Amino acid sequence: MKTEDFNFALPEHLIAQTPLDKRDNSKLLVLDKATGSIEHKHFYNIVDMLNENDILVLNDTKVIPARLYGIKEDTNAHIELLMLKEIAKDEWECLVKPAKRVKIGTKISFGNHDIEAICTNELEEGIRTFKLKYDGILYEVLSRLGEMPLPPYIHEKLKDKNRYQTVYAKCEGSAAAPTAGLHFTPELLEKIKNKGIKIEYITLHVGLGTFRPVNVEDVTKHKMHSEFYMMNKETANVLNEAKKSNKRIISVGTTTTRTLETIVSLYGEFRECSGWTDIFIYPGYEFKAIDALITNFHLPKSTLLMLVSALAGKESILKAYNEAIKCEYRFFSFGDSMFIK
Length: 341
What we know:
Blueprint lengths: L26 E5 L6 E5 L3 H4 L5 E5 L1 E3 L3 E6 L5 E11 L2 E7 L9 E4 L4 E8 L4 E8 L3 H8 L25 E4 L11 H9 L3 E7 L3 H4 L15 E5 L1 H12 L4 E4 L1 H14 L5 E5 L14 E5 L6 H10 L1 H13 L10 E4 L1
Parallel strand pairs: 1-17, 3-12, 3-14, 4-11, 14-16
Antiparallel strand pairs: 1-2, 5-6, 5-8, 6-7, 7-10, 8-9, 9-10, 12-13, 13-15, 16-17
């Protein structure tokens, strides 16, 4: 299976640079994975697409201001860090620019020495690990010094940083938003609950695994970076009961999907647990946890496009993407939405 098989031509003007004024006014393309049929709706119509007794699972991770600009202490060179994941207490894996200037022992300071970082390990692909020193609570210091880590294809400044958070974001630690959830409003979630649909939450802190491009020709040779996930006992019980009762489990986003599929693959059921996942889902994968998926439109040749192709079939997905392009849907993080039912 070739990475090039998941390529498509996207006009640049369809890459959404800013969020819509109203979250749930985004377009919604509904794809029936059994028939390949396509309908065009708006996201606020999602409540009509869901059935009473469905279970909707969302990722409640919260994006931290994970992009930091600092000074290398010995040369005063400017260094950019993107904090990806905490691997031990105050030790973080970070993506560094320019990485060639940062070796083991390099010290970088941020702000007025509010954070000091010492490089403890050199990894591949521009990644380094750092031990952090700071006073107080890290996330409070980051809220003063850091920037929201918008993806590189977004060139506009974000006026309201909360628009790169879901309205239900709770557990801090993510380097990127679980963007499928950005379309929900509190009012829409209330309507969904009122219809008799249960809403459950898991946590996956989005790191490099989710948005790193595939740089190998053969899809199966790609290695995902690991990301931290958690599921509580109550959610596990609800989902196990749903499976027994043949209720639909609808995942909001590829991060939620990867968490649910990881847990069932490991344990044969849902259970209270936490850990690191590097699951890579591409065509040929047999889904064990989810029945349907709410997701955004993804980058060409990305692991996310491969995941949705595994669920609905590559031909159906690429046909739906071509239809979305023809109908001027907005793509990627701040773009429109898709429901694969």
